[in-house]
Amino acid sequence: MENFLKEKKPRFKQMLENGEMVFAPCVWDCYSAACAELSGFKAVMLAGTPAAASATGTPDLGIMTGDELIHLTERVAAFSPLPVLVDFDEGYGDSPLNTYRNVTRLVNAGAQGFTLDDGMGIRGCTRMGTVKPGEHPYELVSREHFKAKLKAALEAIRGTDCVLIARTEVRCNEGFEEAIDRMKMAEDLGAHMTMINKINGIEEARRVAETCRGWKMYPDIVSHHGQTDAELDELLRLNFNLVTMHFFEKAAYSAMLEHGRANFKNSDTTYSDTYDYGIKREEWRVIKGQKWLELERAFYRS
């Protein structure tokens, strides 16, 4: 009898080594990870904004704890056959010892890659765009402190194929060139991949690629006026081989509001019961975890 909890997953690092473009949506639970799988994606990013909103009902301001995120990682990684990457913020602690311990726990929970940034636990409203940069600077650690945390993370994953994605938030405070310099430092230190938050478009991607030659992440690609920020083929040529995006959140809550408002107005569930969801029978089996029922039946067979 096959144990699906021990099925061998595709490996994120192997995808990168094979020269693949990993196009990964941001998810926050098992259902959203199942939808990513059924949509054809090959990996998922467990992202801070939807994870915090789902788990604690708070913005991504460092209110969700490391324990909550690690537990969530364990649940999603155990459920999904896709590689799970995690937005791990500053490592959930100021000391590199916090980083070392928490990254070890994160890998044990099933993460195949994670971001580690140069911010602090108090991320503040500047990061959320509610005040102008300079009015309330985003708290960052020094280069030396960031370097120590990167070293701790690398030591924690030594002997594994987990990918460290060094991420900088320094652009909000000190500009784009400082962000590039910090990522070059991280690359020289041994970080497998680098990421500059708030990178904007293919021209900036080219500027980064002039200095950072290794694997790079393009975060949260979007479109403007019907045109995407950057084409994946061109990003891959610049070694931006991980591209993430946020869209499942809007799709989920807009659909729930649509059905909720209609059913509330009608005082019944006719709207939802007669709605053509376009979901195939086999897809429902994946979303609802049918394999657990099949496993239970196997245990009862003589």
Concise summary:
The protein is of the alpha/beta class and 302 residues long. 48% of the residues lie in helices and 14% in strands. It has helices at residues 12-17, 30-39, 48-56, 66-79, 96-108, 124-127, 143-156, 171-174, 176-189, 201-211, 232-237, 248-266, 270-273, 281-287, 290-300; strands spanning 22-27, 44-46, 84-87, 113-117, 163-168, 193-196, 215-218, 223-224, 227-228, 240-245.
The geometry reads as globular
Query: Could you list the spans in which at least 5 consecutive residues all have pLDDT below 50?
Result: none
- State the secondary-structure class: alpha/beta
The count of strands amounts to 10
Total of helices: 15
Instruction: Provide the spatial order of strands within the biggest beta sheet.
Output: 1-2-3-4-5-6-7-10
* Strand residue percentage: 5-15%
Overall mean pLDDT? 92
* Overall radius of gyration: 20 Å
Helix content: 40-55%
Write the element-wise H/E pattern from the N-terminal end onward.
Answer: HEHEHHEHEHHEHHEHEEEHEHHHH
Intertermini distance: 13 Å
Largest sheet entry: 8 strands, parallel, barrel
Descriptive report:
It is built from 15 helices and ten strands. The chain is of the alpha/beta class. Strands 1-2-3-4-5-6-7-10 form an eight-stranded parallel barrel, surrounded by five helices. Strands 8-9 form a two-stranded antiparallel ribbon. The longest helix has 19 residues, at 248-266. It is globular, with a radius of gyration of 20 Å.
